Amino acid sequence: MKRREAREKALQTLFQLENTELTIEDAMSHVLDGQNDSFYEKLVRGTTEHMAQIDESLKTKLENWSLDRLPKIERTVLRLAVFELLFMQDAPAKVVMNEAIELCKTFGDDKSSKFVNGVLSKYAVESSN
Prior knowledge:
- By secondary structure, the protein is mainly alpha-helical.
- The protein is built from seven helices and no strands.
- The longest helix has 19 residues, at about 110-129.
- The termini are far apart.
C-alpha cells in the first residue's frame, strides 16, 4: 500500500473511531478488509495513543477556534498530520502538510483544505526556527 493510500485509510479509521464504541482493531479490520500495512497501523495506533498531546498542541495553534467546534473531518486530518509531524518525523513537513491538504480536498471542502493548511503551516514555521 502506498503512503497516500495508508494515510487515507488511517483517516477513515480515525474518523470512525471518534465518538463510537468501536475498538481500534475492529475499525482497522473494517477499513483494511484483510490487508495489512505497518505504516497505516503506525498512523492509527500512534494518533490514538498520543491524542491528548496532539490535542494540546493543536489548541495552541487554533486561533478563535476550539477543537470541539471544528468539523470532524478537519479535526481528524489535523490530528493525523500533527502525529506525523511531532512523533514520526520520517517524512518532510511539506509532504505531510501536502498530504493533509489533499485529504481535505478529497473528504472535506475547499474551506477545510485552506483551514488545515493555515494551522499546519504554524508547525512548519515552528520547526524551521
